[in-house]
Design a protein that fits this description.
By secondary structure, this protein is an alpha/beta fold. The chain is built from eight helices and ten strands. 33% of the residues lie in helices and 28% in strands. The strands form two sheets. Strands 6-7-8-3-9-10 form a six-stranded mixed beta sheet, with helices on both faces. Strands 2-1-4-5 form a four-stranded antiparallel beta sheet. The chain starts with a strand and ends in a 5-residue tail after the last helix. Bound molecules: adenosine-5'-triphosphate and magnesium ion (MG). The site of adenosine-5'-triphosphate has 12 residues, from strand 1 and helix 1.
């Protein structure tokens, strides 16, 4: 379980303090797919980067199974079983996708085994396995390969920042199935279809968690709020 205790993240911009996250307390449970949603700029990516150790909180604590990991590096957190898939994948030249899958899974995979990871994210594996993970891949292909690599890591806690971004809606439903039950998944998403599959939804606004709970309840409130903003009645 990942526990956030009074997490704040404040930066200085043009000599002034900017509160990106403000006093966030929340428990991400094991065996649970928790979706984080909210407006652009509400702090979702920042929150997940703090959990992974890419940023450090200004104050507060982050615990993994009760142990304080606030001051651990990204590598140390990765060794404890935390994985992270970026909103915008980072590509590498000079290394093939097969080699990256081997690094991610920490073993030499047979070609069919490596292909399984790619098939899970809807790619025709043999077309990609010997390609480099570079900018010649389309945005959606990069995103899918990043997801496959994250799945290959088999961690305790897996964080995906907008896994659906750039992925065509035709194959999105199939992609949804990769979030198998059992691990702690933290997924930032704007997609109602993904949100409705979650066990818990967290809604962020202006650096705060403004709501959390089961999809049925939270999605109903979000729809009402959307209708009100659009000028509709109750
Ligand atoms: N280093 C920084 N300097 C200035 N502002 C920053 C910095 N990092 C984040 N922010 C601001 O913090 C806010 C939260 O950013 P964040 O990327 O977490 O939003 P988000 O909820 O993931 O948005 P989106 O849905 O667009 O991905 C934004 O207003 C962003 O501009
Ligand atoms: Mg973001």
């Amino acid at each position: 379980m990942i526990e956030l205790k009074n997490i704040s993240y404040v930066i200085r911009e043009n000599g002034e303090e900017k509160h990106i996250l403000d006093n966030i307390t929340y428990k991400f449970k094991d065996n649970c797919l928790t979706a984080i949603t909210g407006h652009n700029g509400s702090g979702k990516s920042t929150l997940t980067k703090l959990i992974m150790g890419i940023y450090r909180p200004t104050s507060g604590q982050i615990l993994l199974d009760g142990k304080d990991m606030t001051n651990l590096s990204i590598d140390e957190r990765a060794r404890l079983g935390l994985n992270y898939a970026f909103q915008q994948p980072i590509t590498f030249r000079g290394i093939t996708i097969k080699e990256l899958i081997d690094i991610a899974s920490n073993e030499e995979n047979s070609v069919p085994k490596a292909c399984e990871y790619l098939s899970k994210v809807g790619l025709c594996a043999r077309e990609y396995i010997d390609r480099e993970f570079d900018k010649t891949l389309s945005g959606g292909e990069q995103k899918r390969i990043e997801l496959a690599l994250t799945l290959a890591k088999k961690g305790k806690v897996t964080i995906f920042d907008e896994p659906e971004a750039g992925i065509d809606l035709w194959s999105f439903d199939r992609l949804n199935e990769i979030f198998s039950k059992g691990l702690c998944y933290i997924v930032v998403s704007h997609q109602e279809r993904l949100l409705s599959r979650a066990d818990e939804i967290v809604v962020m606004d202006k650096g705060h968690i403004i709501k959390s709970g089961k999809p049925k309840e939270v999605l109903k409130d979000l729809t009402v709020a959307k209708c009100k903003r659009a000028g509709g009645g109750n």
